[in-house]
Amino acid sequence: MGLTKVRVGLVGLGLAASSHIKAYQANSNCELIAVCDIDIVQAKLIASQYKIPKIYSSYDEMLKDKEINVVDITTPTFLHASMSIAAARAGKNILCEKPFCLSLEEGQAVITEVDAAGVSLMVGESYIFMTSIMKARALIDQGEIGKPQQIRERFGTWLQRPGALDTERESSDSHRGWRMNSAKAGGAGFPWMFDHCVHFFATAEYLMQDTKIKEVYALKSEISWMRDANIAEKNNQENSEMHTYQPEDSGDIPIITWTYEDPACQGVWMRAEALNGKYDPMYGFSATIIGDRGMIEVLGEGGKGLVWNGKNVHLILHRKNFETKTYRFDEGGDDIWQSEVSYYSFAHRNQINEFVESLLAGKSPRYRGEDGYHHVKTTMAAISSAKDGKPVKVNDINDKKYGN
């Protein structure tokens, strides 16, 4: 039996928080009744801005609030597992941002506690809740491109809306400064990849109709943004607020390839942007899915530059012996990116609507702890592959081999 009303306490008021807040407040079946952050000034500011009645600076105190039956965790990655476990023990249902653990041991501990408490856990894998990506999956399921067999993911430069990101808290754990620290963001020397690859692999499996990735091979580049003055200068000019995401001293990973459990299927992800000194006319994330009777091109987060017959579109469906069709999903723009599609504004809303509906119906959400665990494991395999210079099977990876 599901909940009759979803009452949420949100902890962590960094980049993702505002999108989550807007999503809850747009859903008539839930109430966002509390926010929590160690920065009490920020918590008071957000509570005032969005008219949220309760403010906490202590997560433990918020968990004691009997009105709250759902905790939304949007804190830095190193806090995800411990906060999820504490929420489960307090009998709260959980939405936890990705990646939801730093290690496989942590991830399994969360799943075990959630099962023991009988609460629901959804991991915030927002890419597969983008309207454009969900439409691509629907077209694939309808057989429009035949059997999907190959996916090509591109990662180009992201263009920010002026002033969209709060730079005043850049160095604090409350905001983005932690993202390039492996101890806090994960990645064993590749925190950027750990933070982002879960998105790419989740999308790659979703668009391949949930076929699991079997083996990954990641290529490591020795080019470092910090050691290349020309790239640094270009980045300063074109993407001045994105320094948090510069490639690490341990190197960059510009290309990842993979095979699926279905031997007919393969995938590749390619990164070409100002931050790693490369150029791609396509902005943000985009994907091409190739079947035996057609092909789909679709924009994802920050996506811009997909053109058909001189017009900007969001999805293109090419079909053998049929005319090409195009689609647009005009959802009011994105809160953060200058892009053709809405990610921060609508992917999080779609995801939270799914979570709320699953809680009301007493069902499991579409993306659970086990899914988040699997894509963390796949990401670990990719990072291990880059370090070792050879393919790595996902099922062979463990915390010791990964070197967390």
- Tell me the structural class: alpha/beta
Distance between the termini: 39 Å
- What is the helix fraction of residues, given as a range? 25-40%
Oligomer classification: single chain
Helix-strand pattern, N to C?
EHEHEHEHEHEHEHHEHEEEEEEEEHHEH
- The amount of beta strand, in percent, is 15-25%
List the total number of helices: 12
Radius of gyration: 20 Å
Rounded average pLDDT: 90
Q: Order of strands side by side in the largest beta sheet?
A: 16-15-12-11-7-10-9-8-17
Shape label: globular
What does this protein look like?
This protein is α/β, with parallel strands linked by helices and 404 residues long. It has 12 helices and 17 strands. It has helices at residues 17-25, 40-50, 59-63, 80-89, 104-117, 131-141, 182-185, 191-206, 229-238, 347-361, 369-388, 399-402, and strands at 6-11, 30-36, 54-56, 70-73, 93-97, 121-124, 148-155, 213-221, 252-260, 266-271, 285-291, 294-299, 307-308, 311-312, 315-319, 325-327, 392-393. Strands 16-15-12-11-7-10-9-8-17 form a 9-stranded mixed beta sheet. Helix 5 (104-117) links the parallel strand 5 and strand 6. Helix 1 crosses helix 10 (347-361), helix 4 (80-89) runs parallel beside helix 5 and helix 5 (104-117) packs antiparallel against helix 11. The longest helix is centred in the C-terminal third of the chain and has 20 residues, at 369-388.
